[in-house]
Specification:
CATH architecture of the largest domain in chain B: Orthogonal Bundle
Radius of gyration of chain B: 31 Å
CATH topology of the largest domain in chain B: MetI-like fold
CATH architecture of the domain at 57-73 and 97-167 and 315-440 in chain A: Orthogonal Bundle
Oligomer: heterodimer
CATH class of the domain at 57-73 and 97-167 and 315-440 in chain A: Mainly Alpha
Distance between the termini of chain B: 65 Å
Largest sheet of chain A: 6 strands, antiparallel
Structural class of chain A: alpha+beta
CATH topology of the domain at 57-73 and 97-167 and 315-440 in chain A: MetI-like fold
Distance between the termini of chain A: 45 Å
Number of helices of chain B: 19
Number of strands of chain A: 10
């Protein structure tokens, strides 16, 4: 059917025309701006003598980075980084080392911040006034101050103020903190450790399977599931034993000076130390074992062997990121729990279910549906915020890339590497959280 | 004999058989639990029952007391606070030249005047100086007199600002009663006054010019935050509309922009702003570094803002749009008059939250070399005479940020309540 000309809508009032015209306009504007920028970029790069390409990644980096997490390496007798790197390696290698440091920070941060955030979030519902107000105070303080300021505070005002190695802080003989870093127990690498680790993974899977089987028997068949319960307890005990014994925990041990191998200089230092620490000015010239046993502090070197060393930068960044993100997660958890209607609590208690079980079986699964989407973006924020480690000299990806840019003078290439890497990391977080989200969403027919 | 005694008379157990009193409790029922809000009851309910709560109270309360004692001990005996008053001017305005300082005070004076008038207009039908407001002003004045800051110019000028605020509020209230449109005029005055501040701070046109590398401290922080917020809001709303648009090309561009920016850390974008933007511009065109910083902040924040506004757009029922169409409104009018006002109102808390984090994000500029509040405090700490005063400086700066951010969230709650037309 053709319309008569007087009934035809004029072009400028036709919605379809405008839709197409607007899109064409959008494309033209974006393409024009992009080509103008790229044209300028070309000219500017030619004039500055810059090139584009990633060949420079093979060049020698010749700058060193600080270790972040370093387990004690037995044959080499030093603490060495998980991802070995030396200044003679290439730019590509140093960027990988930075990426590894970033990933360690993200994984540790996400794990700890989830734990702290959920605890603080639930504490806001505590019927203890102190806990309730304390958690709210924590949230208000953390959320209203900038993260970077908090990181500077943790790094400069807390971790850098740790005592000198000789006066290190000690926690029950397992944890030591000084300006050299935090020393903590860590499994020593051995074949037994790998076997135990594998056993632990298998055990975890076994626990999950047993648990599901027991729930299935109890819910679907109405059986008590006693055998499965004993199985669960047995596996759990076995896993605890393997965890404690099989992993071969190595405790950090402080190296002490051996008085029998004192050289003249050591003796001088020792005497000075005794005079300063114990206010004893003159020691008997032949330094007896007794005198040495009386002044053990002056035999401490502040050096350790075995265990794991965390750098101060790593510790400060981890503490700062975890505490900052946890405040936001706590608010998300609170909002999630509040979103579950009161009727659910009441119905559950009418069925005679204990309040703790109500929380675990009725309220929390429903709250999870509300909690997970914003949790996803908090995890991504944590991953992105780990780049602030650059400000406190933690050798993470952005920090290393920045040094690489300064040395190689390749802004565009380095920028592309950073952007693509962070985009990929965020995509991985987002995809896995979305998968988890689908698993807990309400399943309707 | 009589199977239904109760049919004829009501049976009271005690009347029927006196022996039964031995078995039925005659003692009065337990008194109702004492729930009067006395302090003792409050403590009992909130801190001591059940038994494990009492244990938690003792442990946690002991921990808090210990922390508070240690903190106060440090504040009053060990901390060396002279670093703060000695550098008050630097914290406030960085290396801003002394002889031009009066311009900043004039700008503050204009802000205070406008704030006072707006307050008076908003409160034109209620008591202006209620008890709480008077207490607040009094506390501010007392704090001003307690703090060890120089009398000239700080203390006298701050007191003057407080008086100015009260006076202009009173004038605003009186004028507001006579001129109902004053509210709109003050809004325009706020917008127009921005150019006055810009002129006062940067100079030119008859004033001594002050280069941006002499801007710093709170002034630079607030300036960058305000400008970025003002620019990123319309930009973010446009992006959100683009993402919800039914034009596929527009939607694609918006989604790409939003998702890419949201996947990259802010510090990388600011680095891009400082290093890469000049590469994309024609020769000789090198924007000022404060401007580049604002561009970076705006590019970053508008993507996040767009996501917040999108949440609001999605919360508006389709019926609103259809009703507007049925009334004959075209698409731009439907969006601007019907959908957007409701959508933005719905997401005020989230949007203000985004503004707060934008304000906090200005600290990242200290990494790329701008001396805003945090950058300024870092350079004060690098001064040999104040070395090691980390805790003092960071606590002070943190308190400043906290006050700004908390004030913003209070303001958001107020606006939210004011605009809440729901039932």
């Amino acid at each position: 059917m053709t319309q008569s000309p007087e009934h035809q809508v004029p072009l400028w009032r036709d919605d379809r025309f405008w839709k197409i015209a607007l899109q064409v306009l959008a494309v033209v504007v974006v393409v024009a701006i992009a080509s103008l920028l790229i044209y300028n970029l070309n000219i500017n790069m030619q004039r500055a003598g810059l090139e584009f390409g990633f060949e420079f990644l093979d060049n020698q980096a010749s700058f060193d980075i600080l270790d972040s997490v370093a387990p004690y390496n037995v044959p080499e007798e030093t603490y060495s980084s998980i991802f070995p790197y030396s200044p003679t390696d290439s730019y590509g290698r140093v960027l990988q080392a930075g990426l590894v440091n970033s990933l360690i920070m993200m994984v540790c941060g996400i794990v700890f911040t989830t734990i702290v955030g959920i605890i603080v979030g639930v504490l806001q519902f505590s019927n203890n006034w102190l806990l309730q107000k304390g958690s709210q105070l924590y949230i208000e303080i953390i959320r209203n101050t900038p993260l970077l300021l908090q990181l500077f505070f943790w790094y400069s005002a807390v971790f850098s103020q740790l005592p000198r190695p000789g006066d290190r802080l000690e926690l029950v003989g397992a944890l030591y903190a000084s300006k050299r870093g935090i020393f903590m127990p860590w499994p020593a690498t051995s074949p037994l450790m790998w076997v135990s680790l594998a056993a632990l993974i298998v055990g975890t899977i076994g626990l999950i399977v047993l648990w599901k089987w027991r729930v299935y028997l109890m819910v679907e068949q109405g059986r008590p599931g006693k055998a499965q319960l004993y199985g669960l307890i047995g596996v759990a005990i076995a896993m605890i034993v393997i965890f404690c014994v099989g992993l071969g925990w190595a405790f950090p041990q402080e190296l002490t000076l051996d008085p029998s191998q004192f050289e003249a200089r050591d003796l001088e230092n020792f005497t000075a130390c005794v005079a300063e620490t114990y206010q004893v000015s003159s020691l008997a010239p032949p330094l007896g074992d007794e005198a040495i046993a009386t002044y053990p502090k002056c035999l401490q070197t502040g050096n350790f062997e075995y265990g794991l060393r965390l750098s101060l930068e790593f510790s400060a960044l981890l503490v700062g990121l975890v505490l900052y993100t946890a405040a936001f997660i706590a608010e998300i958890v609170r909002a999630g729990i509040q979103s579950v209607v009161k009727g659910q609590w009441e119905a559950s208690s009418a069925l005679g279910i204990h309040p703790n079980l109500t929380m675990r079986l009725v309220v929390f699964p429903q709250a999870l549906r509300v909690i997970i989407p914003p949790l996803n973006s908090q995890y991504q924020n944590l991953a992105k915020n780990s780049s602030l480690g650059a400000a406190i000299a933690y050798a993470e990806l952005y920090n290393v890339a920045n040094t690489t840019y300064n040395q190689s003078g390749r802004p565009i290439d380095v920028m592309l590497i950073i952007s693509v890497t962070y985009l990929a990391i965020n995509m991985v977080i987002s995809l896995s959280m979305n998968a988890f989200n689908r698993a807990v969403q309400i399943k309707e027919r | 004999m009589n199977p239904h005694p109760s049919f004829f008379f009501v049976v009271y157990p005690t009347d029927l058989n006196p022996n039964m009193t031995a078995h039925t409790p005659t003692s009065p029922a337990l008194p109702p639990p004492d729930v009067r809000p006395t302090p003792a009851n409050w403590v009992k309910q909130n801190l001591l029952t059940p038994w494990y709560n009492a244990a938690i109270t003792v442990i946690v309360g002991g921990g808090f007391l210990w922390l508070a004692y240690g903190f106060l001990l440090w504040v009053f005996t060990q901390a060396q606070w002279q670093v703060i008053p000695a550098n008050l001017a630097i914290f406030t305005a960085g290396r801003y030249p002394d002889e031009s300082y009066w311009r900043l005070w004039v700008a503050v004076g204009i802000i205070v005047t406008l704030a006072g008038i707006s307050w008076g207009v908003v409160a034109r039908n209620v008591t202006l100086f209620s008890r709480n407001v008077l207490i607040g002003l009094g506390v501010a004045a007392v704090i001003c007199f307690i703090l060890p800051i120089p009398v000239v110019p700080w203390r006298s000028l701050v007191v003057f600002m407080l008086v100015l605020l009260a006076a202009t509020a009173w004038i605003g209230q009186q004028l507001g009663k006579k001129v109902p449109k004053l509210g709109q005029y003050t809004t325009f005055a706020w917008l127009g006054s921005f150019f006055v501040y810009l002129w006062l701070i940067s100079g030119n046109l008859g004033l001594e010019p002050v280069k941006t590398n002499e801007w710093g401290g709170v002034v630079l922080t607030v300036f960058m935050a305000v400008v970025s917020i003002a620019i990123c809001f319309p930009f973010g709303v446009t992006l959100a509309l683009g993402r919800q648009s039914d034009l596929p090309v527009v939607r694609l561009f918006s989604v790409l922009y939003i998702e890419i920016v949201r996947g990259i850390p802010l510090i990388a974008i600011l680095f891009m702003g400082q290093v890469i933007i000049p590469l994309f511009l024609p020769e000789g065109m090198r924007p000022d570094r404060v401007l580049r910083a604002i561009v970076g902040l705006t590019l970053f924040s508008s993507a996040y803002l767009a996501e917040n506004v999108r949440g609001g757009l999605q919360s508006i029922p389709k019926g609103q749009e259809e009703a507007a169409k049925a009334l004959g409104l075209n698409s731009p009018l439907t969006v601007s008059l019907i959908v957007l006002p409701q959508a933005v109102k719905a997401v005020i808390p989230a949007v203000v939250g985004q503004f707060i984090s934008l304000f906090q994000d200005t600290t990242l500029l200290s990494i790329v070399g701008l001396e805003e509040l945090l950058g300024m405090s870092r350079s004060i700490l690098a001064n040999p005479s104040f070395i090691g005063r980390y805790s003092e400086v960071y606590l002070f700066v943190g308190l400043l940020y906290w006050i700004f951010c908390y004030a913003m969230s209070l303001g958001s709650r107020y606006v939210e309540k004011k605009l809440n037309t729901g039932h």
